[in-house]
Amino acid sequence: MLSIKGLEAGYEESMVIREIDMDVKENQVICVMGRNGVGKSTLLKTIIGILHPKKGSIHYQSEDITNARSSSRAQKGIGYVPQGREIFPKLTVYENLLIGLEAGNQKKVDEKIYDYFPILKDFAKRNGGDLSGGQQQQLAIARALVSNPSFLLLDEPTEGIQPNIVQEIQDVIVDIKNTSATSMILVEQNLDFVKSVADYLYVIDHGLVVYENPIDQVKDDEVYRYLSV
Q1: How many whole angstroms separate alpha carbon 44 and alpha carbon 196?
Q2: Belongs to which family (predicted)?
């Protein structure tokens, strides 16, 4: 579904990710782990088109999207939840969700979003900036989901979130995986969370993939050696 070959990207003359090869199948959840600053967010920003690669290629559903605009990638079904949420604080919860519709063909917010995150229905008229951090993360994920994406990029969705909302996010990812053909790439630091939702794990260090395995073959000590400071 998504194929990345020899991908290199960075900022100005600084190369952050190098020689990244990655394949994601339909209805597969891929997790990417690594220390802070090793290129995980850069990888997602390059896939969604915020950054343009210096080398390599990105194919989505057999189409070369290496140089496509981020808006075009969104219209093709790639949803993106950035690190830090980036919701619109002065817009209401419902208005934030309506903005998410612009990426797809949906005309109205699917009620299933409220099944996933009931608090968003209760707070529909509240400004996004008035929500707690965990509620804003729920809103950011819901905003990406309302366009019914076929592929979802999630950048550290559990970072700084209270445990009960982490569990809700985990349940949503598992439900999407079990009830749809949507694929995902998930950047995450919590290995236990990763093992509960993922099919395959990549670990990045200094911009390179240094470890990869199907999730049922992952050895914790081999992963933690690349996560410890």
Answers
A1: 21
A2: Belongs to the ABC transporter superfamily.
Within 8 A by CB and 6+ apart from 50, the residues are: 70
Predicted local distance difference test score (pLDDT) of residue 86: 85
Domain limits, the chain: 83-181
Maximum Cα–Cα distance across the chain: 47
Which residue, among 199, 208, 219, 172, has the nearest Cα to 24 in the 3D structure? Answer: 199
* More confident of the two residues 12 and 20: 20
pLDDT at residue 96 above 90?
yes
pTM of the model as a whole: 0.91
Could you give the CA distance from residue 156 to residue 73 in angstroms, rounded to a whole number?
21
Tell me if the domain spanning 83-181 has CATH number 3.30.428.10. Answer: no
What are φ and ψ of residue 58, in 5° steps? -130, 120
CB 66 within 8 A of CB 60: no
